[in-house]
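Structure first, sequence second, as always.
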């Protein structure tokens, strides 16, 4: 039955109505970057945020990405993202050695 509220439901109908019009955005930064690179397009992240909210109230926008701490250009970009409405969630990149010989 669709109208019945179960004890394990996340939100009551009242909470759903109260939160209508609010938006949270979650972006996988690495996948978006490489998809744009492959398509040959450049993303305007300010316009992207405006389009995704489209008149709704933005709760928060998260941008998840791996980080190369030695890449100054990337560090500047992530700082810009933080200053322009995105909450950057990052994790240091782990580089695997490619010179290891395959063991049999």
């Amino acid at each position: 039955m669709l109208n019945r509220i179960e004890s394990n439901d996340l939100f009551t109908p009242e909470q759903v109505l109260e939160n209508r019009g609010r938006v949270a955005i979650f972006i996988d930064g690495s996948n978006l970057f490489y998809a744009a690179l492959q398509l040959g397009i450049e993303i305007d992240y300010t316009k992207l945020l405006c389009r995704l909210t489209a008149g709704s109230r933005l709760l928060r926008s998260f941008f998840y990405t791996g980080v190369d701490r030695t890449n100054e250009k990337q560090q500047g970009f992530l700082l810009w993202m933080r200053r322009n409405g995105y909450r950057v969630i990052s994790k240091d990149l782990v580089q695997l050695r490619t010179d290891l010989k395959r063991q049999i």
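Margin note: The chain has a mean pLDDT of 84.
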